[in-house]
Amino acid sequence: MSAYKVEQVRESVMNISGKNIFYCHDTNFLFWCDVLGGQICKLDLCTNRISMCRIKDERIISFIIPIEGFKDQFIVGAGKKLMIINWDGVTTMAHVMKILCEIPVNGIRINQCKVDKQGRLFFGTMISEESGSFFNLQKRVGSFYRFTMDEGLVELKDRIGLSNGIAWNKNFTKMFYVDSYDLNIYEFDYDLTSGNIGNSKVLIDLSVYSHHGKKFAAGITTDKDDNIFVTMLGCGQILKFNAKSRKIEQEIKLNVQIVTSCEFGGKNFDTLYVTTSCSDVFGPQNFPAGFLFKVYNLNTNGTEMYKFKMNYE
């Protein structure tokens, strides 16, 4: 078995806080956001060209997801708002087409998101940077939401510290979820028909691995065998867990401290793309912090990511 390889994506630029990767299989585009830099980034994996844009008056942009069946249209989380934008992938300013909703809570912002197989959007919130440090573990002001055009905004869980990674098993019967305030990966029973979650339990207790110097769990994704890959803030690693045995199978090390999110991409879903941060939240960061990375020779493949549907089935 070949050892995994880690490379900085040379075409990428330094992000203050890169996050929320979305790989679009039909275009071979990779999207992500520089959350604190207020930018949307796109990498064309065919040409290796990168494009970036901003949204007028929005300083925080958390995620971007393409909308199924609508060319150049995306659902975006910006600050406390969900919106639809139009972006041709070339211009440096996106056009806001519609504000879908605004989270009715002060002092928070939208963070990590993911879309299920039916096209529903799931995302969570956290304390905003203006309202205090996310290290303040007493402030559980976040929530976890589902959004569709038919239902609108539905709160699924409250008293969240820092809502982060979301993933499903390949059959969409289980949802995996990270609240970064807790050293746990949670598992919910998932009903694909309704989009409801239930029977929360701790799947993996990450405090067991505290002697490795792990800090906070952040983004998660799964591969074709339902293994879970979780990025760890503060220690420059991605941990691969077997969801059945709950045992760690692999540690992937990067030459940066703050590893924020990871998703499989490429036509065969065999490359793990990784965002990082150069924020000073863990102290001064050195090059190449903030750049996009790719990990290959992992001897596994990811699965398709799903676009948001205006009318889910």
Automatic annotation (TrEMBL):
It comes from the Eukaryota. GO terms for biological process: L-ascorbic acid biosynthetic process. Pfam families: SGL. This is SMP-30/Gluconolactonase/LRE-like region domain-containing protein. Binds 1 divalent metal cation per subunit. Residues 21-277 form the SMP-30/Gluconolactonase/LRE-like region domain. Its cofactor is Zn(2+). InterPro entries: 6-blade_b-propeller_TolB-like, SGL, SMP-30. Substrate binds at residues 109, 111, 129. One of its GO terms (molecular function) is calcium ion binding. Keywords: Metal-binding, Zinc. A divalent metal cation binds at residue 164. Belongs to the SMP-30/CGR1 family.
